[in-house]
Amino acid sequence: MQNSSGKFPLNDIRVVILDLDGTMIDSVPDLDVALNGMLQELALPPVEASAIRMFVGRGTQNLVRSTLSVYLESDEVGKTMDIAMTLFYKHYRIVNGERSTVFPGVREGLEHMKDKRLSIACVTNKPSIFTEPLLSKNGLYSYFNLIYCSDTFLVKKPDPFPMQMACRKLGCRPDQAVAIGDSINDAQAARAAGCSLFMVPYGYNYGKPVKEMNPDAVVSSLLEAANLIS
After folding, report:
1. What is the pLDDT of residues 148-193, one digit of tens each?
2. Distance CA 100, CA 1 (A)
3. Which neighbouring-strand residues pair with 217?
4. Distance from first CA to last CA of the chain, Å, rounded?
């Protein structure tokens, strides 16, 4: 664990705000199948899962656009986006949750957070049509008091508004919440919202070390995170 403040456990925390992809669930295996199904129908070559991993976190449109950009120029990407999105949604509805896996320590961490009577929110840049099925298929849905997705509001992370609304809905001040994520979008949203910030090092941060985001702690698992919250 690395931290900037060294003041642990965090006191007077009422709410934990969790990211989904790259923090709780490794969804790249599902996305790999869906995106390559999309590319095949567009008569384009496949992309490697390692490349897809670098595209996750900024929302579905960015994911599809970045994948198309591997092979197409920007003007071609713009012309192809509508049909590409339709094809991606078609394939992802079929495979969502089928090959994804829950990261180690996630279930144990969520259980420990519930034992501490913390409210738990999921704030993700994934559309709602995919978020709830993914959580359900992986046995995590019941842990959450609140789920906000990319289409819940007009803005998504790194805008702080979804996290601010989660705090308001769950009856706490932002300084009584800790956000846990894996990418710069989570870090920027949490800091702008006024929440504490933990980051996991195993997720999707576009190849950049999470220490660069200056979190309050880098935690190896959600169980370790739960142990740092009072």
Report:
1. 999 999 999 999 999 999 999 999 999 999 999 999 999 999 999 9
2. 26
3. 3, 198
4. 17
